[in-house]
Amino acid sequence: MELAVWVIILPLLTGFLLGISKLYFNKILFPLVMSSAIIYLYLLILVIQNSNPPKLYSIGNWGLLGINLMVDPFSSMFLLIIAILFISVIVFSMKYIKMNKHKYFIFTYLMIAGIAGMVLTADLFNLYVFLEVSSMSSYALSAFKKTDKGIEGTFKYLIMSTFGSFFILLATILTYYLTGTLNIAEVSLGFQDIPFMIKSMLMCLFVFGYVIKIGLVPMHAWLPDAYEDSPIPYNVFSSGLVMKSAIYALIRVLYIIFGIEFLSESGILNIFVYWGVITFIISHFLAFQQSNLIRLLAYSSIAQIGYIIVGLFVGSEKGLIGGSFHILNHAIMKGALFLVVGIFYYSLKSVKIEDIKEMGYKYPIISFIFVINALAIVGLPPFNGFMSKWLIVEAALESGFVYPAFFILVGTFLSLTYYLKVIIKLYTKTEEKIITKVPLALKIPTIFVGSLCIVFGIVPSLPLSLINNIPKFLLDNSEYVRILLGG
Amino acid sequence: MEILYFIVIFLFCLGIYTIISQKNLIKIVIGFTIVESSLILLLILVGYKPGGTAPILDKVYQIVVDPISQALALTSIVIGGSVTAVMLMLVIKIQKRYGTLNIDKIRKLHG
């Protein structure tokens, strides 16, 4: 059996095993979840190591008709994010989730299976199916606490997200109608003789569908609502992986199927760069008004997505490297911030910014993690956020986008204001209050994820050795197509 | 044949209009199922050939309809069914907690 298939099968299998084990043996949860997570980590590392040059995993030797999985540097970067976040969040949720543990872990594993499938598959319809698998478990986790706000937010999320996937499905069907195939490589070859107008229309459908799932302004309204009352470990996945996997799908479709020449010819690159700028400016302002820490982080997520979009759609090699690096960095930084907020919620039962006063003295190490990750997300040296933002600014200037580069700097100051507001509250003294003691199992994963921002900031060559290969296969789709066709 | 494509376009637009214009949650869910059905119909139409049959039971056949699009249609039906189920589950929960199905009155989230 091919190695990469297990990246999808193992979480699915664990999910189903958990469902069965709930009926017969209740005690088995912890060993089953942990052993599966550790094997999965090992598996991911093996697949990532084999990703350069891109490797094709053809299942069952059916050739182009069969299911093809493709691991190139861009997908292996996503596998790296899964590897970092998954093990930490699983350890974190073991103690954090108290009710319905089985259900929680089943949905988490199904979500990971969907995301892993999305980043590995080389087939348009499978991309849609895995997108739906991950979104479906995402809805369930978002409503997991069964509070009024949680259910209302999830309903909004469900409506918007399904609305988007209709357009993705429509575009996929029309692509099949026009080219007679769903394999990404064959579609890419078949698209060469299709008229410009029809291609532009198809691209609009794909873009509209995925942009709703990503949550760019003005399609962002569902996102903070869906975050607000969902379990905090899920928020780590949601901002680090679910949103990012939609970006992955968008980039894969636009760069491989349509090709960079068509993108620059049709002007979509310019549109996306300015769209990204509008997104981060507006969401920085919205984030500033929030009194709820989770909503603040959610708006900050939308803003960082804006930076990523600017980087990825500048259309140069450096922009793609900066954007991809920022995807990785944002997943880590926002993950650490959410985990810290999870610890505060565990001990205070509140996520209002007013209520976290004096936590800086109660939990010095955890608060320090919060501070360095907040500064990293703002983009101060020597953290990793600075590295990737600098690359994006440089790429924008080199490609002649002077105003976007200027607004990235403005956005940095805007984000500094609201993160400073939180940090000041963190170190404000107040009267004694009752806090629950936090177990070590919550602190260790937080410290692990949180300290990565210093590691990647001081030694950026560590992830960049992987990321530097990304543009080679995105800017020139012929190499990807050739490998996928089996040449 | 062409009229079927127009029916698909009409159903798609009707569904989208229902989702956008209606205030009642159940009617919004109905809008979603209409769009879904139109897309499944489109999938079947894309693979259909006049006079074609499925080469499973017939011993003699000349024209074969495209099996891939039918397989895709089955998958979309499953996905659509599960999305509708999740939606209805949430509608039931909302109705129990808020006592209404009017989308304008369901507003505990703000900001």
Main traits of this protein?
heterodimer; A: mainly alpha; globular; B: 111 residues; mainly alpha; Helix Hairpins; 68% helix; elongated
Short description:
The complex is a heterodimer of chains A (487) and B (111). Chain A has 487 residues and is mainly alpha-helical.
The number of helical elements of chain B comes to 3
Radius of gyration of CA atoms of chain A, rounded to a whole number:
22 Å
Shape of chain A: globular
Give the beta-strand count of chain B.
0
Envelope shape of chain B: elongated
Query: Largest chain-chain contact?
Result: A-B, 34 and 31 residues
First-last Cα distance of chain B? 50 Å
Biggest sheet of chain A: strands, sense, closure? 2 strands, antiparallel
Number of domains of chain B: 1
Q: Which strand order spans the largest sheet of chain A, edge to edge or round the barrel? A: 1-2
Overall pLDDT metric of chain A: 91
Number of spatially distinct domains of chain A: 1
- Given as residue ranges, the uncertain stretches of chain B (5+ residues, pLDDT < 50) are none
**Helicity level of chain A:** over 70%
Distance between the termini of chain A: 22 Å
Oligomer: heterodimer
CATH class category name of chain B = Mainly Alpha
Question: Roughly what fraction of the amino acids of chain A lie in strands?
Answer: under 5%
Q: How much beta of chain B, percentage-wise? A: under 5%
- Architecture (CATH level 2) name of chain B: Orthogonal Bundle
List low-confidence stretches of chain A.
none
